Structures are given as C-alpha cells and as structure tokens.
Amino acid sequence: MEEFEYKLREIFFYIGSFGIRHKQINIFEPESISDDDKTEFLTHVHRGFRIGQSLIIEEILKLYKDKVFIKEKFVEARKLKDKNLLNFLSRSQNEIEYRINILRHFSDFIAWQLLKRQYFKARRFHSGEKERPDLLNTNFESVINTVNYFHKQNSFDFALISDLTTFIDVGDILLASKNSLIVVECKSGEIQIKVNEFLDKLAGDNWKKAVEDLAKEHPNKKALKIFDQAKRTLNQHHKGTKLSHFMNHESGTDTFSDTEVKIYESKIPEKYYYNEIELAFKEAIIPGFSTGVIEDIVYFTVFRDNKVEIAFDVFNSMVEHLNIKSHKTDYLFQLDLPIKEPLFCKPFGEEIIFELLTRKLVFLLVIDLDALIELFNLKGIKAKWMTRKETNKYLDSKPRYKPYTYQNQAIQVEAGKHTLVLGSQFLTKILLDNVTPSSFVEQYYSYFEQPIKKEKR
After folding, report:
1. What is the pLDDT of residue 392?
2. Under a CB-based contact definition with an 8 Å cutoff, are residues 447 and 266 in contact?
3. CA torsion 346→349→350→351, rounded to 10°?
4. 324-345 burial, b if ≥16 CB within 10 A, otherwise e?
5. Which CA distances in Å does 77 have to 58, 67, 217, 382?
6. Which of 158, 161, 172, 262 fits 186 for a cystine, CB–CB 3.0-4.6 Å?
7. How far apart are CA 266 and CA 316, in angstroms?
C-alpha cells in the first residue's frame, strides 16, 4: 500500500495543487484577478489535470490487468479446491477494486472542479447506472489518442476521459475549453466508418436513396448492424448536444429524458458540521477513539491506529444499543457512489484524507431516521413513513428516481401543494457531504416556498 499511496500523493499534487503552485492568485479578492492572470492560472491547472490523468490511466490499466490475472487464478484455485488460495485471491480482488475506486474518485475530483462543484450540473451526466466500463474492453485507446490530439492543438484545453469517472455517462470526453464544456464522442472501427458514411448521406436531400443503397450494398445482417449502430450514434449525439447546451446555458431538458430541468436556488446557505468532525479527529489521536453527535440525529465515531481493527464491531454494537430506525455508513462509501462531492473537496486537509484512504483512520456515521422525520415536521414540512402498501404502489409506478426505503417503507414529505418521496440523496447530503440535518430540512422548506430558477450547488 505504501507504493500505491506514494503514487496517489503524486496524482493529488497534479490535480489539486499544481495550478496554485505555478500561478499565485488571490481567490478571496476575485475582482483583483485580471483576465490574463485567470487564463494563465487555468492553463497551469489544466496542465496539472493532464499529467494527473495520465498517471491515473497508467495505474488503473495495471489494476484492470491484475483483475484478469486474479480471475484466471480463481479458476485454477476452484479446480484444486484450495480454500486458502481462494481466500487470498478474494482479498486481493477486493484490494484491486478498492484501488480502482480510489483512482476513479480522483477523476471525479477533476470533474467536480470542471463543473464548479455544482450538483445540478453533475446530475445531468449520470444515467443512474452504477456499473462502469471495463477499460480493457472498450475503445479506450482511441479515446486516449483523441485526448492527445486535443492537448496538442491547444495548450489551454483539457480533455477529461468520461470512463475514468464514476458518473459521466454521456460522451467519451468532456472537453474544457476557454469558454465552454463540450461533450465529445469517439467512435472507431469498420462498422462505425460505414455508419458515418451512411449518416453523411442521410444528411443530404435524398435520405430514402441512402437507405436503399445501404440495403443493396449490405444485403446480409451487416446492414442491420449499421442501422442499429447509426441509431445509437444519433442518440448519443442528441444527448451530447442537450448536455452541452445545459452546461453552457444552465437551462434546457434533462439529458436522459425530454423533461425540462427545474433548477432551484435556496435562500438559505448550507451549513456543515465539519468543525465537529475535525474536533473528533483530534480527540482520537491519543486514545484512538472518539465520538460525536449532531442535533441528536447524526451519530459518528472515529477510530485510528490500533483501534481500527475493532472499529466495525464496536460501531455496530453502539448502533444496536441506540435501538432506533437508522441508516449507517462508512465515510469511504462515497468512493463507490456516483453523485457526491469528492473527499478532496472537504476541508480536513491532505493528511487526514490520506489517513482515511489508507485505513489508518476509520470514520463511521449513523442517522436516526425517526428523528429526521420529526425535524421535518417541526420545521413546517409534513413528513411520515409511507405504509408498505403505499410504498409498493409507488414503486409499481416506476419512478425515475428510486426512493430510499427502510424495511420496505419509504419517507414522504409534503408542504402546500408539493409532495415527494425521499430518494437516497438525503443520506449523501447529511452523512457524506456533512450538511447539518437542520440546514438540509431548511433547504427543502426554501424550495417549497418559492419557484426560483437557479441553484448554486
């Protein structure tokens, strides 16, 4: 792990510190920053992103090759019925997946900087699917070649590879230029060449003849493949066009549907419990253990050094002793979560974050769901547990966003004419983004009260 940690710190330097090390600007006095200084600073930032992404690619491809090797060894171990070897391979496989998740989290950190840490923009990129592409079985080489082309063309631009992230499901590349973000598709292969030729002909006056010519030229199933891939190509282009428009104008329709995107701006700034967390980190230094409570709704524990081994057993026992309807999580669960603010956006400092990543420090949290519902009601928003029958009926309606359920019951909130069912995003905001429960509920109240058109988060 030490060698991998060294590589992670090198990557972090390039994607988190390189720009500011090479061009000092006063971010607290933005009016004092000239356009030339801003361009120079961002050029250095993008240069750091380029180097960092190259290092991520180098490391992640090694890990994907290790996955293939482990998979082959699993087959041999099962034939031999060697339990010790199977256990070893299982641990090795888990470690590889963990390291891949960390590297994807670094790519997410780049993406969130490009998106200015705005949730409403990040959501437009995500289809809802959690599975990520196998980088050894995609057009990855073609994408890398395209990235290198963009970088040679312009010293300012940065081309982020979508498949390296946990959440960008539109396009192969997100190109950051001086004035815009552009979604880029990279298609290659013999079939795609035919698709491009076919689409060029379709763009002409006689689209019917283009279809007839394709059928004559490829009378077998190849024509159907070309039709099918042409449809996918047009669909991806349509999504990319909608998304690029939304990124640059902050208005439009959802990338994965034709519904208009409603963006709200809260009148109330979000409040965080970062200070309480930092205090718990400090208090755990000598005894190796500390706890904290936020508004009698969120409970958390910190374990470090020799107490790490017992962390989960002790924490589970504590939660059981609370005897509440609860949801618990490891803070590092966010590594495997698509839409969340990355760890490096938190104000804990580089050393604390690397202690978390390397498991020298374990941070576990739990939320009292009944207490949160009570808080909603106290703040003027009716909230309740839906019955299992109501929940099943809601699920049968196939909502686009899956609701959060506890023992097959969802949570419904209502204010005035507005009624909605909570998804799991409230857990992300409160437990992983560390927004205080009161601030989270007050944000909801603000949204219900006024139909504003813009959101700054």
Report:
1. 95
2. yes
3. -130
4. ebbbbbbbbbbbebbbbbbbbe
5. 29, 15, 50, 56
6. 172
7. 36
